[in-house]
Amino acid sequence: MISDQVYDVLTNGVGHIGCTSSLLKPFHADALGICCDQATNTIVCCLNKETNKLFLENLEIGSRVSLFVGVISHEAYNLKGAVIDLRDVNNAESQVCDDLRKKMYGFYGELGIPENLADRYWLKPTDLAVVFLVDKVFVQTPGPDAGKEI
Question: Which domains, and CATH codes, for the chain?
Answer without folding.
Answer: 4-139 (2.30.110.10)
